[in-house]
Amino acid sequence: MQEDTLFSKIVKGELPADIVFQDDRVTAFRDIDPQAPTHILIVPNKIIPTVNDVSEEDEATLGRMFIVARNLAESEGVDADGYRLLVNCGHHANQEVFHLHMHLLGGRPLGRMLPAK
Questions:
Q1: Whole-angstrom Cα distance, residue 90 to residue 98?
Q2: 72, 42 in Cβ contact below 8 A?
Q3: Count of alpha carbons within 13 angstroms of residue 64, beta-carbon side
Q4: Which domain does 11 fall in, by range?
Q5: How confident is the model at residue 11 (pLDDT cuts 50, 70, 90)?
Q6: Is the distance from CB of 96 to CB of 32 less than 8 angstroms?
Q7: Residue 93 is assigned to a structural domain of this protein
Q8: What is the DSSP letter of 36?
Q9: Residues paired with 30 in a beta bridge
């Protein structure tokens, strides 16, 4: 059995969060330390530690995460000007919570992902 994470406790309602969407596959909530005016985390309800742990059975859930991201971007009013979807995988990518999650960031120009070479 997979050990609970901060995010799985939010999904189960054991920790408070500003949940903006939840269904049987995914939960989305506002980041407590937002890096942009809109900063929402979208997580699978099932604990998947990293992208490296994704299996074929997770395909529908991962697709659902993108549909939810698109819908939230529209409801947040960031769809027209653009937004960023970011998934970190592992220590070098600075993944802090080992429960796969997608950051939806928008509401201002976000700049380059990485410094120019």
A1: 8
A2: yes
A3: 18
A4: 6-106
A5: very high
A6: no
A7: yes
A8: S
A9: 40
Cα–Cα nearest to 40, from 12, 3, 8, 75: 75
- Residue 43 sits in a domain of what CATH number? 3.30.428.10
Residues 6+ apart with CB under 8 A from 53: 100
Placement of tokens 């993944």 in the chain? 95
3-state SS assignment for residue 29: strand
Name the one residue in this structure whose structure tokens are 């592992």. 90
pLDDT of residue 96: 93
Q: CA 8 from chain center: how many Å?
A: 13
Residue bearing tokens 């995988």: 89
Per the structure, how many domains does the chain have? 1
Separation CA 52–CA 56 (nearest Å): 12
**pLDDT tens digits for range 70-114:** 999 999 999 999 999 999 999 999 999 999 999 999 999 999 887
Query: How many residues are present in the chain?
Result: 117
**Side-chain half-sphere exposure of 32, counting CA atoms within 13 A:** 6
Active site residues: 101
